Amino acid sequence: MIAKLALENGIVFTGESFGGSGETAGEIVFNTSMIGYQEILTDPSYCGQIVTMTYPHIGNYGVNPEDVESAKPQVAGFVVREYSKFYSNFRATESLGDYLKRNDIVGIENIDTRRLTRIIRTTGAMNAVISTTDLDDKSLVVKAKKFPSMSGLDLAKVVTTKNQYKYSSNGKDDTEKGFRVVAYDYGIKTNILRKLHERHCDVTVVPASLPAEEVLKLNPDGVFLSNGPGDPAAVTYAIENVKKLIGRKPIFGICLGHQILALAAGAKTYKLKFGHRGANHPVKNLLNETVEVTSHNHGFAVDPGSLPSDYEVTHIDLNDNVLEGFRHRSLPLFCVQYHPEASPGPHDSDYLFDNFMSIMETKTALTHTQTSVAAK
User: Fold this and answer.
1) What is the Cα–Cα distance from 239 to 362, expressed in whole angstroms?
2) What percent helix, strand, coil does the chain show, rounded to 5?
3) Contact 58/82 with Cβ under 8 angstroms?
4) Which backbone phi and psi does 234 adopt, to 5 degrees?
5) Less packed terminus of the chain by CB within 10 Å, N or C?
6) 250 touches 209 (CB < 8 A)
7) Is the pTM of this model over 0.85?
8) pLDDT tens sequence across 59-117
9) What is residue 124's three-state secondary structure?
10) Strand 290-302 and strand 251-254: pairing?
11) Do β-strands 106-109 and 165-166 pair in parallel, antiparallel, or remain unpaired?
């Protein structure tokens, strides 16, 4: 079946559809990962975006029910050079095409993804439309132009959990006794929860808009701020809640959580030209002068010059010097822009979860000491 991809700048690609049929719109971006398409498709941070894979051959190992980052695909659409109709992997349960079709995700193949990627790099991320029903170029370009810009969009409210819940790895209440962590769900990835659970954390996941006062009533040892989609500056309720938590509980943020923490601290964010999306970005840890191979998915970034003086930059991207991490100089608070749970490297950034355990342990020990002194 013929499908068309139209960019808001007037360029139109003609290809073939795979997966769902119909029409979809969103901000078109590209991801440079060679593998991991299932994790990419199900990452809530891609809500509202059409993802283009730069690696030319996608779908060859199929899809399985284990390697998902959320309950369903979150992307608005999917673009590949060549979709592999035949797949081979002992864990696979269905083809990528059938998976997309079952979840009504429109895909397009047999287009020049190299050219498309160069357009996005040169012009910047922009809106696009994929359609199998409307094949009129002018009509599709108009639709792309009318679609809302990602700037100013609060998409955390779209993907967040509606109800508070306890995370367990097998659906049962198997949480071991450990640190109590409240995780704000701005679009949280399952593997983040796995990483916390592996460290014996008792994790309670809460909606993005839960007031800070309610979080404190849960008496957590630490608060985690998750990844998520959209413009961080638009998630005003989250910024205000995090302001109330700074200095009161240890905080660890990833991706959108990193940006929200920066805004709560008084810093500013801005939109990148075409974003960072891939599993091969080199990031320098300024604290120990090492380089980590990291996974990224962000279209916004924090302005390092806007950070207050009581914060320090801890990580930078070696491709373009974009800020990738910071911490408070005295409070138990730190965050990174990239995804340490995504296993690039493959374990280069695991230490960040251990750091979170350490600051919770230190804070808990200090609280117990203060309580004992007060009792005497």
Assistant:
1) 26
2) 30, 30, 40
3) yes
4) -80, -15
5) C
6) no
7) yes
8) 999 999 999 999 999 999 999 999 999 999 999 999 999 999 999 999 999 999 999 99
9) coil
10) unpaired
11) unpaired
